Amino acid sequence: MLEAGPDILNHNIETVPRLFRAVRGGGSYRRSLDLLARAKAGGGRWLTKSGMMVGYLSPGKDYAPIARYYDPEEFAEFKRDGLAMGFRHVESGPLVRSSYHADEQAVGAGAP
User: Fold this and answer.
1) pTM of the full structure
2) DSSP string for residues in the chain
3) Residues 6+ apart with CB under 8 A from 18
4) How far apart are CA 27 and CA 22, in angstroms?
5) 16: closest CA among 60, 55, 74, 58?
6) Domain span at residue 47?
7) pLDDT, tens digit (0-9, with 9 covering 90-100), for 26-41
8) Structurally, how many domains does the chain consist of?
9) Ranges in the chain, pLDDT < 50
């Protein structure tokens, strides 16, 4: 994938390691992190974008059930935490999808 030279590499991790197999049965948490790390190690040739789905509303009956709903203040705290960790842009809210404001994210991160 990286050999194709994308302007932006988007790879959503979706969830935490403990729940990864249940949510992304064919995936590997470690492989996902490794892909993002390889992209970042590319000397800034690619912007990277990823997503964690926390407390989101299930898109259908074939998806993982909701275990807990987070309130808006908790989402605001997630945003503050992400920015404090060094993420350039964080979208955080109960109805946010991984592509929410993607155009603004790209421009803010310096995409061509």
Assistant:
1) 0.72
2) -GGG--SEEE---BS-HHHHHHHSTT--HHHHHHHHHHHHTTTTSSEEE--B--SPPPSSTTSPPP-----HHHHHHHHHHHHHTT-S----STT--TTTTHHHHHHHTT--
3) none
4) 10
5) 55
6) 2-108
7) 889 999 999 888 888 8
8) 1
9) none
